[in-house]
Design brief:
- A hairpin with a 2-residue loop joins strand 3 and strand 4.
- A seven-stranded parallel beta sheet has the order 6-7-8-9-10-11-12. It has a three-stranded antiparallel beta sheet with strand order 2-3-4, with helices on both faces. A two-stranded antiparallel sheet has the order 1-5.
- It is of the alpha/beta class.
- The two termini are 26 Å apart.
- The protein folds into two domains: 117 residues, Enolase-like, domain 1 (2-Layer Sandwich); 199 residues, Alpha-Beta Barrel (TIM Barrel), CATH 3.20.20.120.
- The protein has twelve helices and twelve strands.
Length: 347
């Protein structure tokens, strides 16, 4: 068991700190995240809380986290975090509790590994491989291929993960298909109560399925009108928003061929580990997903991709690709592993 390899490692937390970051994104919104820092025995572990409501981060900055200091095993620390309310006031969405827990647990995992002279690859007896990645971006309002062309001018071999919307025309979809490989089309049909909720649109779904025949289709909303479009195409479907643990995989409408693994959705290191093992045992192909991380969390998703699904269409591009005003300094693919990895870090 993956989690067993880190569960009994000792960890000592002497102090807690956190840093709020904010930045504009290519999807047209300002992103705020909090870097969680746990320190002890001369080492510091860092994680990133990717809760989407900016006010939740400001409240955390003012109130702080509960007392997490003390000595324990990593498993004991995780269990303790799971019993605590990490929000000064209840979050708008319950899923945010997983996001914050992941921010704390990933910091604790980083600290645990550092205090024990390990990196994640050696602790799990796996190797970091070069990581393939796609670039995720929206096409603006009205949608155009301008952003795609800007990225391809700098990195001509870039492949994309795109969010088709109902204002896409057939001509625009054809322009996109002619310009660059699209590895994933995210239909956003499984989101509820967010700014990116998308309706189940059979016309859009058919356009995407036919125009991008090699793309993985993520998070369709299956209705009486849209379900028939996927008959015989189930192997192209992937799931993201519903995936929070093994139980959520087992209740999908059909056995999946693909899953988007976003560690923050799982909350705990144990749940993430169990879910990755489930996918390996059931031959479910995986790829990494991001949450517009602004700091160390981006390295965490890259490290996990390097260990478990390095050749997938990983939505883990370096942060520069999410900068609306990038100046041309974009990392090439694949991403090379760090020469001397330490803790739960990619760099």
């Amino acid at each position: 068991m993956l989690f067993d390899r880190v569960a009994d490692l000792p960890v000592a937390v002497d102090s807690i700190d956190h840093t709020l970051r904010e930045r504009e994104t290519t999807s047209g919104f300002a992103r705020a995240t909090t870097t969680v820092e746990l320190s002890g025995e001369g080492e510091t572990g860092r994680g990133e809380d990717v809760t989407y409501e900016t006010e939740d981060h400001h409240e955390l900055a003012a109130a702080g986290l509960p007392d997490l200091t003390g000595e324990s095993t990593f498993a004991e620390f995780s269990a303790r975090v799971g019993e605590l309310d990490l929000f000064p006031t209840p979050p708008e969405r319950e899923v945010f509790r997983h996001y914050r827990r992941w921010g704390v647990e990933s910091a604790a995992l980083d600290l645990t590994l550092r205090q024990n002279g390990l990196d994640l690859s050696s602790a799990l007896d796996r190797t970091y491989d070069p990581v393939e990645f796609v670039v995720s971006t929206r096409l603006g309002e009205p949608p155009t291929i301008d952003r795609l062309e800007q990225v391809r001018d700098i990195r001509p071999n870039t492949e994309f993960k795109l969010d088709p919307t109902t204002d896409w025309s057939a001509d625009l979809a054809a322009e996109v298909a002619d310009l660059a490989p699209v590895r994933i089309c995210d239909l956003k049909g499984q989101y509820e109560g967010t700014d990116v909720d998308a309706p189940a649109d059979p016309d859009l779904y058919e356009l995407v399925l036919s125009t991008f025949p090699n793309a993985v289709i993520e998070d369709p909303r299956l209705t009486e009108e849209t379900r028939p479009l996927f008959e015989g195409r189930e192997g192209r479907v992937s799931w993201d928003a519903p995936i929070t643990g093994v139980e959520s995989i087992e209740i999908l409408p059909f056995e999946p061929d693909w899953l988007n693994i976003k560690p923050s959705r799982f909350g705990s290191v144990a749940s993430l580990s169990e879910s990755i093992e489930y996918c390996m045992d059931h031959d479910i192909r995986m790829y990494g997903g991001g949450q517009f991380e602004l700091g160390v969390g981006r390295g965490h998703i890259q490290a996990l991709a390097a260990l478990f699904y390095p050749d997938g269409p990983n939505d883990v591009a370096p942060g520069g690709y999410n900068d609306p005003d990038f100046k041309g300094d974009l990392s090439p693919r694949p991403l090379d592993p760090p020469a001397e990895p330490v803790g739960f870090r990619w760099a």
